[in-house]
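User: Hello! I'm new to structural biology and keep hearing that structure can be predicted from sequence alone. Could you demonstrate with DUF6788 domain-containing protein? Please show me the input and the output so I can see what each looks like.

Assistant: Of course. The first part below is the input, the amino acid sequence of DUF6788 domain-containing protein. The second part is the output, the predicted structure written as tokens.
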Amino acid sequence: MSYEQPSPPANLPTEIVDALNEATPEHLRDAASYAEALAEHKEREARLEEEADDTDVKERPDDLPDDVPAKATITIKEINDNRYYYWQWREGDSVTSKYKGPVNPDE
């Protein structure tokens, strides 16, 4: 690891670079964790929106609960080092999730 201060990405706004340069190491680690989670959330939202725009609604899966729309997709969430399946779909501007079950480690 280099002892020189790293250079920020060229496309990162100056206000963000300045705020990060003034942050403590603990705040930087918290910001990195939050930024990663936020990026995943935004990517998932974009994917769900793109899928919602798809006019071809596939046949309803056999294991889809009655209260989950046919346009729902399955997402894997990791909680406390355990992985779980969730049905996920968009309702207006929000994304709704419903627990499906644990991920089988053999899959």
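User: So the tokens describe the shape?

Assistant: Right, they're a compact way of writing down the 3D structure. Reading them back into a model, for example: The chain has two helices and three strands.
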